[in-house]
Design goal:
Order of helices and strands: HHHEHEHEEHEHEEHEHHHHEHEHEEHHEE
Number of helices: 16
Largest sheet: 8 strands, mixed
Oligomer: single chain
CATH architecture of the largest domain: 3-Layer(aba) Sandwich
CATH topology of the largest domain: Rossmann fold
Strand content: 5-15%
Strand order of the largest sheet: 3-2-1-4-5-6-7-8
Amino acid sequence: MNNTAKKLDVIQSEAPALRLIKHDNNIYSRLALGEAKMAMVGLGYVGLPIALEFANNFNVIGFDINEERVDMMKEGIDPSKELSSEAFENKNIKFTAKINQIAEAEFYVVAVPTPIDERREPNLTPLKKATASVAEVLKKGDYVVFESTVYPGCTEEVCVPILERISGLTFNEDFKVGYSPERINPGDKVHTVTNITKVVSGSDEESLEQIAKVYESIITAGIHKAASMKVAEASKIIENTQRDVNIALMNELSLIFDKLDIDTNAVLEAAGTKWNFLKFFPGLVGGHCIGVDPYYLAYKAKQVKVDPRVISSSRFINDGMPYNIAFKISRELEKLGKDPKASTVLVKGITFKENVSDIRNSKVADVVKKLELFGIKSWVEDPHADGEEVYNEYGIRCEKEHQGKFDVVIMAVAHDEYNELDADYFNTISYSDTIFYDVRGMIKDKVNHGTYLSL
């Protein structure tokens, strides 16, 4: 008998007493007994996987404002293409785009995007709207847990006042709040929802214990109880800020070594032979996490009169890499006596990382735009991306594959399909003097002609 089953046996033995009071303090027991329902607000890359896991144990209402996405999920289709149809089978979940239907719930989890605006400052509009929706149906005794990545203090400073104002209820007296940062890694089939330690926090001791029990029911790797919601918020945001800073260092090193005519990857391979060398690599930093979260922390730092120099410099370096790549390609074409405006470029991959369909904040799209500044036309392909979505988001036409020969081939994303390509393939799409720009160092041993470049 597993731990969850043992816990349920204990709960069942206490059932008569628990049923006497509808809104007792033990929300976990009520969820486990099926006497309370959970609502997941936001069913994207974060919300859907965890909602389906909770649906193994509890009655779950999955809510999303996008009716088309909801209809797909009702048919057992993940719009984000991360989960198979089997992931939807035998789950106690009801999908809806009608906000009034989440009024049945007593435990709410909010997992909506927290992007940045054109000024690179936090755009909390989706979070505020989702919070307001929950507030409209919030009842005495309910719990609200936020998973959206935010700056430290946002839950208490922004979300709680919305809940109180719209519901007319009093925080920590009538309803409880928690924060449990998402730890979803799109495209990763090893580090999945249940086997990554989950950080949880609550607005008081009681809520912390109850929220911890709820998440413990699905997280096999265990949970970590943070000292406060601010600590939990900060822990999430520095995970990605740390990666951003380290990648920025590698990108800056690649720019230095390029001027010194030194192979960056060879340098990293040599340095990596020491046990305590951290193995980060240069690259394009996009997506909804590493390329966004540091701006949230920098925003909060400036509010408290701290100049986040390292964070801001790292963001500047990483955001500048698309231009550096385009500039390098333009100069190399000129060295070969080719007119950049008459040259053709094949860009392989446009998603923000390998083996996902997510194109949010794609820095490859930025590379294409920067190439246009030099008059260079690109043909873009990606086996995972949706061509219509790419065009709507960036105005870039994207196919699954392109045929023909090109003056430049940019290996932009390390999809598994691209790692399987051999030398014969690269011979068929290139001329004798083609430039190969290998962003991730994927094909160095697979091209035997032309000019090979890498970060």
